[in-house]
Amino acid sequence: MQASLTGRASAAVARAIGGRPQRAVRLGLSANWRQFTLLVATNAFVGGMVGLERAVLPLLARDEFGIASKTAAISFIGAFGLAKALTNLAAGWLSERFSRRSVLIAGWLVGLPVPFIIIAAPSWGWIVGANVLLGVNQGLAWSMTVNMKLDLAGPNRRGFALGLNEAAGYLSVAAAALAAGLIAEAYGLRPEPWYLGIAFASAGLTLSVLLVRDTSAHVRAEARLLAQDAPALSLRASFARGTWRDLHLVGISQAGFVNNLNDGLAWGIFPLFFASRGLSLDKIAVLAAIYPFLWGGLQLATGWASDTLGRKPVIIAGMVLQAVAISAVAFADTFAAWLAALAALGVGTAMAYPALLAATSDAVVPGERATALGVYRFWRDGGAIVGALGAGALADVFGFNVAIQTVAALTALSALVTTRALRRPSVIMEVRA
């Protein structure tokens, strides 16, 4: 009788995560490598969706819709960032109440119309609206690939797992940015570059529906293993903790905010800045790609480094490097110098990005992780709105150099705040069977 009950329970767990009956749910990258690999591929398609815009959309605003104001030209980033930030906040909470997989699929359903809208848009308002949908797509789909990988990995190798996730996403951002720029140089800004978006969304949705399994059973297994099966905080309580009550989490949130403030600058202002200096679209595409390329690829190493050295030193060093690199962009006046500065910006961002996500995960119990990461990602992606629109307004009034140097100074200040706010480097829990 006991064996029969155990067998039925095992089969029920297997059905809950979307597969054949298994004897037990196991944590770890090696035990779950097939699903982990599928999620890496899925996040590559998520990154590709947003990468298409990096070299092309600011120039589309200027050349096809005649928008001269830099603030108006990058309004799509504000719409994208606001939609993504709010969706991030809700995504973790939704996944705790429904399932990670269902939220992931919903994200792809929202993202599928985006390239079609951009291809057919008769006015700039349609482009802005498409970016609201893209923000929801990114908030749901990218959030779930983060959470599902953490669920599978367990507590020992969070930094490395997140490095793999973010590397896949941002390498795809870089590849898509470069491809879209080269296609636009050869064929025009519409419609050809956006055919890639149709392919990315279709592939991501297909993988999520047919092959990706839910990870709820892994969350429960980790909670039991760590004796941390306490009830999760509500969204309101988790938001308060990450926004003002817990200095450690507040320090992480503000650092993430500034990291994406820098990204808003790089995404919205840098292409216009380089175009004003006479660079061709293919060279702008290379500059738009090198930053996320290094940001993505190096996270394989920097995520592992944060597991080994601790989160705090990796985060602070990355933010200092970002501040220096952004300042160097304003001082430079040759393609080679800009390429070097953006490469340094990519390295600095790669250092901070997975370590900030892992530091948030370290600070909460497994049942609260998705909601706490949603709060962190809300503040992080809110930075893109301020970075794009704030830098655009400064550039309209004072010029590009003032806008860029202001962001560099804010990044240096954030590094100092992070030094004071974060507690000692996180100790990675050693869990032995």
Number of domains: 1
Q: Level of helix content?
A: over 70%
**Which H/E pattern describes the elements?**
HHHHHHHHHHHHHHHHHHHH
CATH class: Mainly Alpha
CATH homologous group name:
MFS general substrate transporter like domains
Spans of at least 5 consecutive residues whose pLDDT stays below 50 are 1-23, 425-433
Apparent shape: globular
* Major sheet size, sense and barrel closure: none
Over the alpha carbons, how many angstroms does the gyration radius reach? 21 Å
* Average pLDDT taken over every residue: 85
Structural class of the secondary elements?
A: mainly alpha
* N- and C-termini, Cα separation: 27 Å
Strand element count: 0
Binned strand content: under 5%
CATH topology description: Growth Hormone, Chain: A
Q: Count of DSSP helices? A: 20
Tell me the CATH architecture: Up-down Bundle
Quaternary class = single chain
Structural write-up:
The chain is mainly alpha-helical and 433 residues long. The protein is built from 20 helices and no strands. The chain has a single domain, classed as MFS general substrate transporter like domains (Growth Hormone, Chain: A, Up-down Bundle), CATH 1.20.1250.20. It has helices spanning 2-16, 33-51, 57-63, 70-73, 75-97, 100-111, 114-120, 124-153, 158-187, 195-210, 216-225, 235-245, 247-268, 270-276, 281-297, 299-309, 311-331, 335-362, 369-398, 400-421. α5 (75-97) packs antiparallel against α19, α9 runs antiparallel to α16 (299-309) and α16 crosses α18. Mean pLDDT is 85; it is low at 1-23 and 425-433.
Write the layout of secondary structure elements.
Layout (H helix, E strand, L loop, with lengths): L1 H15 L16 H19 L5 H7 L6 H4 L1 H23 L2 H12 L2 H7 L3 H30 L4 H30 L7 H16 L5 H10 L9 H11 L1 H22 L1 H7 L4 H17 L1 H11 L1 H21 L3 H28 L6 H30 L1 H22 L12
